[in-house]
Amino acid sequence: MAQMSDIKGLTEVLIGSFHTPKQWISWLQPLFRLEIHEDLRTRFRSHSPYYCCLVAMVSSETSNDSQESVIGTVEITLGSRLHSQSLYISNLAVSHSYRRQGVAKHLLQRCEQVALEWGYRSLSLHVLEDNYPAKRLYINDGYKVQRTELTWQSCLFKTPRRLFLKKILKSPQYFLE
User: Fold this and answer.
1) What tens digit of pLDDT does each residue of 77-136 get?
2) What CA–CA distance (Å, rounded) separates 16 from 99?
3) Are 53 and 59 in contact (CB under 8 A)?
4) CA proximity to 76, closest of 42, 118, 36, 39
5) Are the C-beta atoms of residues 50 and 114 closer than 8 Å to each other?
6) How many angstroms separate the CA atoms of 150 and 69, rounded?
7) Nearest residue to 75 via CA among 13, 19, 136
8) Alpha-carbon dihedral sign for residues 92, 174, 113, 125
9) Angle 19-91-82 (CA atoms, 0-180°, nearest 5)?
10) At a CB cut-off of 8 Å and minimum separation 6, what does 124 contact?
11) If you write DSSP's letter for every residue of 60-111 in order, what string do you get?
């Protein structure tokens, strides 16, 4: 579980994953960083019983000290959509140098454990249709496409559509400690 002290590391992982600097808007990077930092602080302070931010850490040893760094994160929350409540996964992100090493898969498995602990049997999420590595991860993990969503941005700016995916969870004995 992420702690308030992890927010700086979480912010850096999220910035690196979702707001990579593009030359023509790189001057906005500090604003994106501040917005993410403050959004995380607000969610942490809400103390909602159905909000959880998970974090993947790696330890590094120096001559006198050991330090932990955030290398991945995911959030899970109770969302209400069209009068039906379900658990929703968002902001799954892994630092570039730790990708394709099972970090995201492990975070997803932990989300499943949290969902079952909370008494839920399904998880849902969105992914952009052109995010092939993420789509492959989710599909291979048992998520099924429920619908394709057009947004005004996808129509106006020809950006990728969003896919809404859902997974029905297996019984608790499926998980290994």
Assistant:
1) 997 655 457 799 999 999 999 999 999 999 999 999 999 999 999 999 999 999 999 999
2) 12
3) no
4) 118
5) no
6) 37
7) 13
8) positive
9) 120
10) 79, 86, 87, 88, 89, 146, 164, 165, 166, 167
11) EE-SS-EEEEEEEEEEEEEEEETTEEEEEEEEEEE-GGGTTSSHHHHHHHHH
SS3 6: helix
Spatial distance between the Cα atoms of 2 and 74, rounded to a whole number of angstroms: 10
Is the separation of the CB atoms in 146 and 165 below 8 Å? yes
Distances from the Cα of 75 to the Cα of 30, 47, 72, 152, angstroms: 22, 14, 11, 25
How far apart CA 139 and CA 146 sit, in angstroms, is 12
Residue 76 bridge partners (DSSP): 52, 89
Extract the tokens encoding 52.
Answer: 């959880």
Residue range 138-158: mean pLDDT, rounded? 85
Report the C-alpha gap between 111 and 113 in whole angstroms. Answer: 5
Q: Check residue 82 and report its DSSP letter.
A: T
